[in-house]
Amino acid sequence: MVTRLDRTSGMLGADMTPIRMPPEAHPLAGRSLPDDEELWLACVAAMAAAGKRAAQPLYGRAAGRVILGQGAGGDRTMEIDRACEKAMEAVLSVQAPFPHQLISEESGVSGSADTLWRVVVDPLDGSLNAKRGLAPFCASVAVAKGATLGDVSVGYIEDFLRPHTFSALKGFGLISAGAPGEIIDPERFESDLVEIVLLEAGRPDRHHFQYQDLSAMGAVGRSQDMRIRQLGSLALSLCYVAVGVADIMVAAVRSRSVDLAAGLLILSEAGGGAATLTGEDILAQPLDLGKRCAFVAWRAGLDGTEIVARARGLREALLHA
Fold first, then answer.
1. In a 3-state reduction of DSSP, which class is residue 68?
2. Which of 24, 158, 236, 247 fits a 20 to 30 Å CA distance from 266?
3. Cα–Cα distance, 64 to 81 (Å, whole number)
4. What is the tens place of the pLDDT at every residue in 75-85?
5. Residue 181: partners with Cβ closer than 8 Å, 6 or more residues away
6. Inter-axis angle of helices 79-95 and 35-55, to 10 degrees?
7. Predicted model pTM
């Protein structure tokens, strides 16, 4: 199933052509944010800031690389993971505006499933980068009114090494899109050229595709300058596609909801789209810690149907283990 995510940011018209708007015509101009989501937005922003402070003395250092065991999501937990999560959960415990269930990559699931709200946290997306002192890595926090990715209503991602945040409220577009006060250039979405394809892949021995196979993704809008980049942070990769810094992202790994929840909402509110490589509805994925879907994502202005067809043509090679 191809999922064309809801376009509500106001950047694109119904025919997918860019709209150039003066500041007073921004989608949020004169509109009040929903009270509940605005409270959650303030909470998750404070959580991410606390995680960033906790990471500062630990990234790239021996103290941060100490392995403590295995997290609830199945990956090894390092001291830097623990410190970020502890700092973020301390803020959540004090500032959460409503009862909630917490789904966190390190500590797992806590709280009642009967509550309306779910808070989905990856306290350190890009842990390997952080371990080695390599940019980028970030915190990813989402809040949902329900149990699936499609129920996410607040998304917030903060880059831990730069003063960049990406955030969105469902139905209200992007709230922040990088550096403070940064406004997305609509010309990024006018061209159908594919120049930057971001790749999220696992260990090399778990993939059997040839590098040249990825050139199929550039055939949507062929550019002689097309290049493949792997950042090491799935959440930030989604943000860069959302704001048009990159054109396409291919996640050739089965990804968890904690990795996707905030980034997919941000992509959606910027007019982008996403689809699994295996045909399932990506927005129906439950908010849990299971590794479920490999997927492709694209920025606004590109032909999602063509992108999905080409990505699924690579499925066997990308996902072969």
1. strand
2. 24
3. 8
4. 778 999 999 99
5. none
6. 150
7. 0.86
